Amino acid sequence: MSSLERAKFGAQAHLDEVGALPTAFPRTLGPNAARYVQEVLDSGLTCDMMGRFERAFAEALGVKHCIATPGCTPALAVLAATSRLEPGDEVIVSPVTDYGTIQGLLTERLIPVFADTGPDSINLNADTIRPCITDRTRAILVVHMTGLICDMDALNDVARAHGLAVYEDACQAVFGEYRGRFAGTLAKAAGFSFDSEKTMGSDVGGCLVTNDDDLAEYARFIGQSRGAVMKPHFGRLHTAPGYAYRMPLCTAAICLAQLEVIREHVRHRDTMIRLLTRYLGEIPGITPLPIPDYVNVYSCWMAGFSLAADAFRCDAETFARQLTERGIPGAGTGEYYLMPAAVTCLQEAAAAGRYPYSMPPASRKYRYDGETCPTAQRFLKTFIRWSTFCEKYRPEHCARAAEIVAAVAAENRA
Fold first, then answer.
1. What is the pTM of this model?
2. Residue 74 backbone phi and psi in degrees, to 5
């Protein structure tokens, strides 16, 4: 293991990025960040900063409950644990996402079933979900990838028809708006990310939100209290396997400061990505990610576009490298976002029939690879994105980015 190159996350994955365009780091922090952190220190770690952030975020989002966690992966892990599903139960999941989306499912011994994406889309939809529903399906976990919100009304209709719970991974879509409603309020519960590179970046952090009182109470019990209750004259009884996934106080302080400026930042990102999308759409052979009409506010975390088939002499990886050399920091492909192809431990467990893929509890054989989601696999072969798109962009940066893409396109045109 010592010879392996470990993956980097957060600021460490971006510190070497330089170019002609702004980068997310150093982050723009809310003006009260230092004051709130100082409150934590002055209190001797006794202030209720986590609770203060939970209440403020819930109020801003218009939901009843926010349960704050150390990161987005823990938030989604707590969400999986609160589902109270049985090993071998199936959860339909977006195929293009990050490992954090499914880590909790794997820990709870649930079986992810990856629905394909829609044509020319990075997200699944109601039509791609329907063929995946079986008598073992219990829930749907959708991902609003790059901040583009899935068509939740159609998806919820399918879920209701089959008696399925719906959850949102809104980690990349904080305060994005869908038909006048915020991402994360469109299903039974949702997870958010405040990791340093995300749109509302803190040092790390995440949360789950819900309007379901029972779910919220159980999430706090499992996720923050380690599944423990108090017995008189004895102490803690751990009645369920739980986690100590409480958001640290200083993280909560930074999150609270970021919450005070995030709406302005998201509105600005929406304006800039729509301008950049228009510019990129004018370049022959370049197709920017389409922004559906139902997305009122695109809380864009990463900008992206696709290369037309046979339009260029080079592949997407070469095209992206040239973009980086020309000044777009962080440009690259994202084939590793295809979960059935990227999570090799999942492939191995299913192929070997290891629990929960043994029968029982599994009711059939499962297979994971890129070919199981062919539309998503084809899409990612020609998709280029940069995760350094941020609130620092101004119109001149959008124009410069489009100029760079146009220049590289001209040099490589078939």
1. 0.96
2. -60, -35
The answer to whether position 413 is within a domain reads no
Closest CA to 78 of 218, 253, 247, 264: 218
Tokens of 220: 């706090």
For residues 54 and 66, the answer to whether their CB atoms sit within 8 Å is: yes
Give a yes or no: residue 240 inside a domain. yes
Q: Indicate the number of domains in the chain.
A: 1
- pLDDT tens profile 208-257: 999 999 999 999 999 999 999 999 999 999 999 999 999 999 999 999 99
For 371-410, the pLDDT digits (tens) are: 999 999 999 999 999 989 999 999 999 999 999 999 999 9
On whether the CB atoms of residues 128 and 115 are closer than 8 A, the answer is: yes
Distance CA 75, CA 68 (A): 8
Strands of the 286-288 sheet, one edge to the other: 286-288, 303-307, 383-386, 331-333
End-to-end CA distance of the chain: 43
Residues in the chain: 414
Per-residue model confidence as pLDDT tens digits over 16-42: 778 889 999 999 999 999 999 999 999
In a domain, 18, yes or no: no
Backbone angles phi, psi at 311, to 5 degrees: -85, -20
Tokens at residue 59, please?
């109020």
Asked if residues 167 and 92 have their Cβ atoms less than 8 Å apart, the reply is no
In a domain, 201, yes or no: yes
Q: From residue 311, give the alpha-carbon distance in Å to each of 48, 70, 234.
A: 57, 45, 72
22 burial (CB, 10 Å; 0-12 / 13-18 / 19+) is middle
Domain holding 152, by residue range, is: 33-256
